[in-house]
Design brief:
Helix content: 10-25%
Distance between the termini: 41 Å
Number of strands: 18
Largest sheet: 2 strands, antiparallel
Strand order of the largest sheet: 1-2
CATH superfamily of one domain: Cysteine Rich Protein
Number of helices: 6
Strand content: 15-25%
CATH class of one domain: Mainly Beta
Length: about 290
């Protein structure tokens, strides 16, 4: 980075520092998971990465996947036909450890080897297993015996056995469809939920049950402080530049709706302070209009 005046007073604040357009995107801008170039316009989030919308394509046939179903394979997107074709090729090359036949859709991993289920007897009743065979403590059981010995986890919501996929949260097991807000029974957007007395809540109903949340720590406010239209815990109300705790005697201003103490504000370049004053004047004119 080169310390130069901002062109046309345009700058980007980030973690208490200010950047010109070029340096901000070079240091902090998202990169496309396909071309690895910076994304300056519309951005698509998928598979834990960012993409140019036009570059979100099948990794095999390059078919455009925006708005279509796809499958994650080794952190890369595949269209369903390509994923199915690759899976069929893989099955033909993998054979059962106890017979010369290839593995189909159902197989079990027994002592580190892939085996057709019918080659493994149930530890309890000795009958051959089906694809519903389950393992517990390195021993295999048929579905009925597995249920009888109480090996299946129980859903914390409906109290019934979880036979398929389960979801772990708050030290309990849940049917994926049953892990919802205790109050409104809606699924959690973006995996964000809040725990109170061992059960999950969405943010609005957590606030309704427990009170206001701190803007910084997202916990229920302790000795709350209200500033800039937000609630803070007393110890979380800090200068966004130097992280100093703000008290009643601390003089502060705001930059991008974040609290900044006067000493930090005074260290800003004259051009930035001039730009901030101009923004305050425009805001006051707008309020009077």
């Amino acid at each position: 980075m080169i310390c130069q005046p901002f062109i046309n007073d345009k700058y980007f604040p980030h973690e208490g520092r200010f950047y010109c357009d070029h340096d901000f995107w070079q240091l902090h801008g998202p990169r496309c998971g396909s071309c690895s170039q910076h994304i300056l316009g519309e951005c698509l989030g998928a598979l834990g990465q960012k993409w140019h919308p036009e570059h979100f394509n099948c990794d095999v046939c390059e078919k455009h996947l925006l708005g279509k179903e796809f499958v994650k394979t080794a952190d890369r997107p595949l269209c369903k036909p390509c994923h199915r074709e690759l899976a069929q090729k893989a099955k033909k090359t993998i054979k059962c450890a106890m017979c010369p036949k290839g593995l189909d859709d159902y197989f079990l991993v027994f002592k580190g080897q892939r085996i057709h289920p019918e080659h493994i007897p149930c530890k309890n009743c000795a009958l051959p297993l089906s694809h519903l065979g389950r393992e517990k403590a390195s021993k295999w059981y048929c579905h009925s015996c597995y249920e009888q010995i109480g090996a299946m986890p129980t859903c914390a919501a409906c109290k019934r056995a979880i036979e398929g996929r389960s979801f772990s949260a708050l030290g309990k097991e849940w049917h994926p469809d049953h892990f919802v807000c205790t109050k409104c029974e809606c699924p959690f957007a973006g995996d964000a939920f809040f725990e109170y007395r061992g059960v999950p809540y969405c943010k609005p109903h957590y606030k309704q049950v427990c009170g206001d949340l701190c803007y910084n720590c997202q916990e229920v406010c302790v000795d709350s402080v209200q500033s800039l239209g937000k609630q803070y815990c007393k110890l979380c109300f800090r200068c966004s530049a130097c992280d100093m705790i703000i008290t009643s005697s601390t003089k502060i201003t705001d930059i991008d709706r974040k609290p900044v103490c006067f000493p930090c504000h005074d260290t800003l370049p004259a051009e930035i302070k001039k730009n901030l004053r101009r923004q305050d004047e425009l805001a006051k004119k707008y309020m009077k209009a």
